[in-house]
Amino acid sequence: MGRTLGAVICVFVGLIVCLSFHVYTVLHRAMPPGLAEAEKIRWFDELGRLARRGSGLMHDVGINIGIQPMKIFINTAFSILFNPLPWQRVVYRNIRVNQDVYDGVTVSTYTPVKNSSPPNCQGYPTIVYFHGGGWTWLSVGVYDGPLKNLANKTKFKVVAVEYRTAPQDPFPAAYDDCLAVTKYIVQHSKELNVCKDLIVVAGDGAGGNLAAAVAIELSSFVRLQILINPALQMLNFATPSYQDFSDMEMLPGITSPEKEITNWMRYGNINLSFKHLLQGNRHVSLESYAAFSDFLNSSKRLPSPLKVSNKSTIHNSESNDTVSPFIDNLILDSRFNPMFTQDVSFVADTYIITSQFDVLRDEALMFGHRLLENGVKVELHHYYHGFHGFFLFAGGGWIELKESQKAMEQLVNYLNKEILRLKTN
Questions:
Q1: From the first residue on, what is the mean pLDDT of each consecutive set of 10 residues in the chain (425 residues)?
Q2: Can you say how many angstroms the Cα of residue 155 is from the centroid of all Cα atoms in its chain?
Q3: How far apart are CA 232 and CA 234, in angstroms?
Q4: What is the pTM of this model?
């Protein structure tokens, strides 16, 4: 009995020592210079690092990390991060929340009690929102707090789409669901009390990809697309921002080349054994690359006044015939890679949010440049203290960041002035 108790005490003490050392390591880990509120962000990064290690271990023992129990675990963890804690009372009395089904797809609606539409517009101005999570993780429920805050701040009705996710439902399932819901809203605007002339599509990360793709398909009906840290292309993984985050492991739990490449592979239903080909930019034919390489010419398309990087895109120079025929077809599909739509002159007005600490930074900036070049009205806001996913901390949860609140304030001002045509201070 005494030996057993002693062993238990030794194990307990050992765990305390290990935990204390781990906390010490996290607290003293170097953070990227220039990142505001780093003491909060280091813990977001650590959560992602732990998930990454766990995913690696599961992969090593042959467990598919996209299985439903793992999704539930990840979604629960991020739900705690994004939403109020149980003992907090964050009440939006001016927002009505409902669940519904539009054309077979589950949605959650967040409707302000007071309608902010201009007098000549019947129904609510409406944001159709597509959540992020690499087309694999997260859900509308995880985003509940931020979505309530978005509706409360903007005074727009928000319709959040619970689209199908990979690997169970790869491309084009998520796109089809988002398109179906947006079409349904357009076709049933009167009965849904939606102002048909003020329909906005929006999303962050993978959701930004879906918003851009839907905006292209329904350009005649979309008034504005809001792209927040969007994933827009898998042609080249050596843009300056990808290089920046390959050269130094900055915030790998939040954003990293390996993480984004894996997301694209799951969405595209590409065998993960080919990951090394994508990491080496050998996954597409040189013919296809030549057709679109100008869209990724950082010397031409990155706004020089922003000074986001001193690097240039390293263009593809090799190809592997094992995967390139299949991936070429994906690249050519604007539903999958909206960045490579040949004619973008018809695209709706665009509001783009980019972050300095994000591997996806440069593709959004270069896409914005090409839209401007083709006569599209573009409003670009780059946040030097922002990171991938930072916009979700603008309010609605127990953690709020100043840079996120600034981004929300600027978006609200734009919507009021340019979309609703309201007088602003």
A1: 69 76 77 86 84 70 74 88 79 88 98 84 95 96 95 96 97 98 98 96 98 98 98 98 82 91 97 95 96 96 96 96 93 96 96 97 98 98 96 91 96 95 68
A2: 22
A3: 7
A4: 0.94
